[in-house]
């Protein structure tokens, strides 16, 4: 019967790992004879521990028989172990049927990275405040601990009124830009997509320019500027989406991207024209465009936190859907996704969050590209890992970049966009060169 | 009497300005295997896409008596699993992850897989003898293994209707037979209804219960292999010079070179 089984399957010749006899093995193929030998899990585990490859039908049937005359199993199977390595013996390992999420160590590392960069950023500045005192001050706000902070009132004011809002804002914006970038790259299946590319940047730039150029004399642009930038960013993406859709292209990501490019070109032209007409505002517009957290306050944090929280939550919840979209629009649709609606939802969420971030920080390039791709190269390409890790690593990255921006040429500040690109680009180049995933 | 699992009434599809499918009517019975055959550009793939509701069409497609046009994507996906000719297989995904994606129509929109989804994926993986490959990445599989992974994903969808677009086009002779045997055993074990577009006429004739011969978007012949596959019809629709051999109840279509030098 065993011989008969063996003959049914087209097979490679193999040597039995137990008795050394030659036999036909169609490991993993449907209908391989070994599939018809039913063994208990424990027996399989035992075989796998002893043998390094497939067993011949006779040996495997021996195991099955031994299982049948079960209970009195003192006699040894007489298995000659060949080689020390334990692989599998029958083509049925304990398969873990699950989707990988964030690997534990990487997740832990990312959380530690954010926390330590927050503490580091709070500690660094013209007035040095120790990390210990900062932890103490933070803990003193927890009830029941009865810790009394050792900071002086002035130190406390510096920490709480000047550094903390800046650091928190940088973390919020960095996390938002990175998570939006990862979502855009997933939803458009385009590695070059960043949070600005559907017209956010051009729209926000135009809004800010208009606010600065046409503010009523006397009143500062301070109040109006974030609002104008936010509205401009949303308007830019809305135009791109409507244009892309009207050409029937929302099914086709390429058309939507082209629509974004078109809208951006037009808005940039208008922005340049307005700047030319009001050349005295050039410097102010330029410094806003380059981005920074120099004027961060708790007011800004309160303003953008709700948008960023809602937007990031929506994007995080879509991480599995983004993996489905990686199969392409057609297959995602045949798996039951309404691809057009999903794409709109993700674009709206990412745009709202990005626009809020842009409104308080200007245009900070590179974060939305470098952070998700670094994670893809180092950890995993699954959006289940990329999206959540982007949020954490993006936050830590921008907090550190902001520390550099305000310390390198202190008391002057570098535009943070310069820092992210100047330090981010070489770092990314190293990752790109050393990563073995590329080209495989 | 229950409605047929799949029914097309005067189905027409226009892509751009070209009408690629014209007034096709067909009823597919439960458990039947129907093969769509015809030369390149005859509209085989487009018909499959229309049946799955992936292109807009005129006429009607009924799934268990319900119109595809008014069903949600998720409802369709629970009824129909489509295996495209060139599926996207992200190389970094493991087989297990890929097969789990097939559970999408059964998973809440923003939810993640439950235990029952994992069990269904595990059943599909075991059914296609992919257990040793469950944690391998798609990029490391051979063509035949990859084809089985794609079938496993479709099987995990647990839809009663399976649409296959050229399921064997990337496989060698042996793997073609294995894959089709597998589909046939899935069909009988899981009571699936199968509609497949096929290039190889001999294989189509041997595995399918019924052949629909298409030419320029229309059904030009319909029936069993011996009814549809004749030297004359293949010559006129495929422009091919073939010999058709009937032997042991099977029909073999062999290409023949017209004149020897």
Q: Would you mind describing this structure in some detail?
A:
The complex is a heterodimer of chains A (440) and B (261). Chain A has helices spanning 2-8, 41-50, 57-68, 104-123, 131-139, 153-187, 200-213, 224-246, 253-277, 282-290, 298-317, 319-325, 329-334, 339-361, 367-378, 383-407, 416-434; strands spanning 12-15, 22-25. Chain A folds into 2 domains: 1-97, no CATH class; 105-434, ABC transporter involved in vitamin B12 uptake, BtuC, CATH 1.10.3470. In chain A, a hairpin with a 6-residue loop joins strand 1 (12-15) and strand 2 (22-25). Chain A contains 17 helices and 2 strands. In chain A, helix 6 packs across helix 16 (383-407), helix 8 packs across helix 9 (253-277) and helix 12 (319-325) crosses helix 16. Chain B has a 6-stranded mixed β-sheet, sandwiched between helices. Chain B has one domain: P-loop containing nucleotide triphosphate hydrolases (Rossmann fold), CATH 3.40.50. The longest helix of chain B is centred in the C-terminal third of the chain and has 18 residues, at 173-190. Chains A and B meet through helix 12 and helix 13 of A and helix 2, strand 6, helix 3, helix 4 and helix 6 of B.
Number of strands of chain A: 2
Q: Count up the domains of chain A.
A: 2
Name of the level-1 CATH class of chain B: Alpha Beta
Helical percent range of chain B? 25-40%
Q: How many angstroms does the end-to-end distance of chain B come to?
A: 61 Å
Unreliable spans of chain B are none
Mean pLDDT of chain A: 80
CATH architecture of the largest domain in chain A: Orthogonal Bundle
Rg value of chain B: 19 Å
Q: Which stretches of chain A of 5+ consecutive residues score pLDDT under 50?
A: 71-95
Side-by-side strand order of the widest sheet of chain B: 6-7-8-3-9-10
Topology pattern of chain A, helix = H, strand = E: HEEHHHHHHHHHHHHHHHH
General form of chain B? globular
Shape of chain A: globular
The residue fraction in helices of chain A comes out at 55-70%
CATH architecture of chain B: 3-Layer(aba) Sandwich
Total number of domains of chain B: 1
């Amino acid at each position: 019967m065993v011989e008969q089984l063996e003959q049914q399957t087209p097979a490679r010749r193999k040597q039995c790992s137990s008795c050394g006899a030659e036999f036909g093995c169609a490991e993993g193929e449907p209908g391989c004879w070994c599939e018809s030998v039913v063994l208990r899990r424990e027996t399989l585990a035992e075989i796998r521990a002893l043998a390094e490859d497939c067993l011949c039908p006779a040996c495997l049937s021996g195991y099955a028989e031994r299982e049948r005359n079960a209970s009195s199993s003192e006699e040894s199977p007489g298995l000659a172990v060949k080689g020390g390595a334990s692989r599998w013996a029958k083509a049925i390992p304990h398969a873990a049927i699950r989707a990988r999420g964030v690997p534990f160590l990487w997740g832990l590392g990312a959380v530690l990275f954010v926390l330590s960069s927050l503490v580091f950023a709070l500690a660094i500045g013209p007035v040095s405040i120790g990390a210990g005192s900062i932890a103490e001050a933070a803990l003193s706000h927890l009830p029941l601990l009865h810790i009394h902070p050792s900071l002086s009132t002035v130190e406390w004011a510096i920490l709480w009124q000047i550094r903390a809002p800046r650091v928190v804002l940088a973390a919020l914006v960095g996390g938002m830009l990175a998570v939006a970038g990862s979502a855009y790259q997933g939803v458009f299946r385009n590695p070059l997509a960043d949070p600005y590319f559907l017209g956010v940047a051009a729209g926000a730039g135009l809004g800010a320019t208009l606010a600065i150029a046409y503010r009523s004399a006397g009143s500062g642009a301070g109040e109006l500027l974030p609002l104008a930038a936010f509205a401009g960013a949303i308007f830019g993406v809305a135009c791109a989406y409507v244009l892309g859709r009207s050409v029937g292209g929302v099914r086709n990501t390429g058309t939507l991207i082209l629509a974004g490019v078109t809208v951006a070109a037009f808005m940039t032209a208008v922005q340049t024209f307005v700047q030319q007409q009001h050349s005295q505002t050039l410097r102010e517009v330029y410094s806003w465009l380059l981005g920074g957290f120099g004027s961060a306050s708790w007011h800004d944090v309160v303003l953008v936190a709700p948008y960023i929280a809602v937007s990031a939550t929506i994007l995080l919840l879509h991480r599995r859907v983004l993996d489905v979209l990686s199969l392409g629009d057609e297959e995602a649709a045949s798996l039951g996704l309404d691809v057009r609606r999903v794409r709109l939802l993700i674009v709206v969420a990412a745009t709202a969050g990005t626009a809020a971030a842009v409104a308080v920080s200007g245009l900070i390039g590179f974060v939305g590209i470098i952070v998700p791709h670094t994670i893809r190269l180092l950890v995993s390409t699954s959006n289940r890992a990329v999206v959540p890790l982007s949020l954490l690593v993006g936050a830590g990255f921008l907090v550190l970049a902001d520390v550099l921006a305000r310390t390198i040429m202190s008391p002057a500040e570098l535009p943070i966009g310069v820092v992210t690109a100047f330090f981010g680009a070489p770092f990314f180049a190293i990752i790109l060169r050393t990563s073995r995933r590329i080209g495989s | 009497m229950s409605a047929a699992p799949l029914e097309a009434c005067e189905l027409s599809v226009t892509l751009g300005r070209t009408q690629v499918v014209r007034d096709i009517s067909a009823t597919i019975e439960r458990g039947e295997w129907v093969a769509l055959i015809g030369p390149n550009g005859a509209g085989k793939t487009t018909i499959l896409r229309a049946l799955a509701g992936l292109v807009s069409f005129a006429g009607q497609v009924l799934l268990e008596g319900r119109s595809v046009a008014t069903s949600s994507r998720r409802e369709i996906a629970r009824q129909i699993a489509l295996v495209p000719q060139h599926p996207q297989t992200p190389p970094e995904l493991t087989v297990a992850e890929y097969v789990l994606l097939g559970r999408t129509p059964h998973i809440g929109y923003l939810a993640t897989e439950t235990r029952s989804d994992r069990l269904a994926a595990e059943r599909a993986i075991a059914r296609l003898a992919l257990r040793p490959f469950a944690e391998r990445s798609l990029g490391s599989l051979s063509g035949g293994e990859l084809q089985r992974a794609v079938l496993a994903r479709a099987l995990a969808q647990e839809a009663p209707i399976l649409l296959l677009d050229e399921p064997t086009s990337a496989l060698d002779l042996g793997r073609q037979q294995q894959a089709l045997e597998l589909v046939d055993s899935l069909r009988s074990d899981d009571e699936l209804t199968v509609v497949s577009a096929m290039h190889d006429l001999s294989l189509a004739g041997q595995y399918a219960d019924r052949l629909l011969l298409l030419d320029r978007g229309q059904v030009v012949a319909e029936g069993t292999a011996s009814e549809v596959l004749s030297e004359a019809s293949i010559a006129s629709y495929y422009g091919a010079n073939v010999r058709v051999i009937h032997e042991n109840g099977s029909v073999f279509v062999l290409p023949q070179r017209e004149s020897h030098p």
